[in-house]
Amino acid sequence: MIKKIFSYNESYLFFILLAFVIALTIVNPSFFTLENLFDLLKNSAGTAILAMGVFIVLLSGGIDVSFTAIAIAGEYVAVNLLNALGISNIYLAFAISCSLGILLGVINAILISIFELPTLIATLGTLNFFHGALLTFLGTKAVNVGQLPNCFKVFGSKNIFTLIKSDGTQYGLSVYVLILIAVVIISWIILRFTMLGRGIYAIGGNKEAAKRGGFNVVKIQFFIYCYVGFLAGIMGVMHVSLIQYSNPMYIVGDELSVIAAVVLGGASITGGSGSVIGTLLGVSMITILEKNLVLIGLSSYWHKFFIGLIITLGVSATYYQAKVRGRKTLSYLKQKTY
Amino acid sequence: MFGERSNIIALSVIMIAVAILMSIFLPNKFLTLINFQSMTSQMAEFGLLTIAMMLTMITGGIDLSVVSTASLTGIISALILKGHVGIDASSTSGVLLVILAAIIVSGFCGLINGVLIAKVGVTPILATLGTQGLYLGLAIIITKGHGINDFPEKFLFIGSGTIGKVPMPFVIFIGCVLLVTLILRRTSLGLSMYMVGSNPTASRFSGINNSIILIKTYVISGALAGLSSIIMISRVNSVRPGYGYAYLLQAILVSILGGTDPYGGSGSILGVLIALFILQFLRSGFNILSISPFFGKSMWGFMLILVMIINFFLEKNRQRIRK
């Protein structure tokens, strides 16, 4: 039983996370409270949603760095469009942001599946193209709380239920959690129970084999990059509602944190492996670490270093295991992955 | 071979066309000695980063950490220059010592990349994506995010001095170009790099030690990034973590525009050199016209994609002819 538990990468991660939480609670007893947990969930929901998208891309053997530009584009366009129309409707905001996300995702998908560009270079190009175009054509002016349509503020502070603390202040579980759960379940079902999901794993394992096995690789890649765009659109609206401020310079530049979370969760580019649970654990780990660096006595300057360290160590562990395994089967004839 | 030559001819035509267009639209501004001096000195730091990128692409990899390596090296060099390690860096020997230290630090950054890729077996993208954060993070920790400025007079000669009418950075750059050309064309290391890039399995079975070749490539790439940072901090007389971040995309763009295959196995320094001039002409034109940097950003992204799509069609065409 115990042996079986430890045969999963996720188990290690879970116990590290547990140890980390216990350590934090000892240092700061207020860490392990329901209020803090709710707060953490609300703050990390957006990252977790992005991570789901990035996870699926990594699973398929690609990499996407343009999702932050898509998220900020969707969010900023939605805010400005709602302001221009004078409408305050959160569903419309989501519709605008997600449609734009899917549209930009289609551009990525065309480049990657039809023109067969290396995914990193294609998305690095679109990252700069999307963000640069957004700043050029829509401007760089931030929209502050006062100018923000009311629906964002309402949505940002909407709770599923609220509890009252002993001193009378209220706290609650944000609706963000519902969106996150929905995204996680949908992603899980797609990967686990549909032919599409099998296809994603298959092209991650070996694209050529998947093609010969009858999978429509172009179609699958279209789905993947559109799905990432769609999720980025959702995250954008959640982000602006959370911080109640829309600045087109935000989010872009945080790609590494999300990729670090996914890599930490055990998704490997070598072959289609990794799990939804692992990704969620990875996100929790990164979020708790990011939010509590100061608490364990390190200034915020350490942030970037830690993210880099996690990616480096995380991928090293995954690839080293694969290499050792591969040596036994003489599979050092490594395929190139982009 | 024919493909490479026609590529270089095409690039030269584009370069001349861009230069002519610039001279027509910006009379008395583009074709001036001062503009060429400023272009060539900016080109040096960026060109070194591009060559660093190109070398790793030849072996089928990529080095996303070049700018971060340059940042970290720049910070450490600046600390030495300011006398924080007890060395007087205002003398000529002191300056040489700083340059040596920079090459060692950046070479070591490259070594870490190389070991991760060759020995641990991480794909170049993920390895250098991780170290990109790691090196920049270290730089931020060291300076707490602040910049360092005002370096000794002698050191500033590297970035803003001239020999005759030629800016010093350009002289260093040309020296490095010749050195790298020599490595690529005349040494077994150079040949092995192309072979590892075009088919790692074949090169391994023909007796090439792939790991050593890859490690050497990344060390050279790191050292070039370090040299670039020396020029950079000397030219602007200050250093700040993250300076020159926009160069990353542009370095990839110029490498690919210059005919380097991102899948490895081909790439010529002449092509990259011409592509470098094209980009520098455009950038200088943007500067003179004071076009917004965001527009520039989207243009570089667009160009990168465009060049890749054109390459896709050229490759398809070539395959059809072969059949």
What do we call the CATH topology of chain A? ABC transporter involved in vitamin B12 uptake, BtuC
Structural class by secondary-structure content of chain B = mainly alpha
Low-confidence stretches of chain B: none
Estimate what percentage of residues of chain B fall within beta strands: under 5%
User: What is the CATH first-level class name of chain A?
Assistant: Mainly Alpha
Strand content of chain A: under 5%
Strand order of the largest sheet of chain A: 1-2
**Dominant shape of chain B:** globular
Distance from N terminus to C terminus of chain B (CA atoms, Å) equals 18 Å
Number of domain modules of chain A: 1
Order of helices and strands of chain A: HHHHHHHEEHHHHHHH
Overall body shape of chain A: globular
Number of alpha- plus pi-helical segments of chain B? 13
Give, in order, the helices and strands of chain B: HHHHHEHEEHHHHEHHH
Structural class of chain A: mainly alpha
Helix content of chain A: 55-70%
Weakly predicted, low-confidence segments of chain A? 332-338
Keywords:
heterodimer; A: 338 residues; mainly alpha; ABC transporter involved in vitamin B12 uptake, BtuC; 14 helices; 2 strands; globular; B: 323 residues; two-stranded antiparallel ribbon; two-stranded antiparallel sheet; 13 helices; 2% strand
How do the strands and helices of this protein lay out in sequence?
The complex is a heterodimer of chains A (338) and B (323).
Chain A: H1 2-5, H2 9-27, H3 34-59, H4 67-85, H5 90-114, H6 119-138, H7 150-156, E1 159-164, E2 170-174, H8 176-193, H9 195-205, H10 207-212, H11 217-243, H12 255-264, H13 276-292, H14 303-328
Antiparallel strand pairs in A: 1-2
Helix pairs in contact in A: 2-13, 3-8, 3-11, 3-12, 3-13, 4-5, 4-6, 4-11, 5-6, 5-11, 7-11, 8-9, 9-11, 12-13, 12-14
Chain B: H1 2-25, H2 33-58, H3 66-81, H4 92-120, H5 124-143, E1 148-149, H6 153-160, E2 162-163, E3 166-167, H7 168-186, H8 188-198, H9 200-205, H10 210-236, E4 238-239, H11 247-257, H12 269-288, H13 293-322
Antiparallel strand pairs in B: 1-4, 2-3
Helix pairs in contact in B: 1-12, 2-7, 2-10, 2-11, 2-12, 3-4, 3-5, 3-10, 4-5, 4-10, 6-10, 7-8, 8-10, 11-12, 11-13
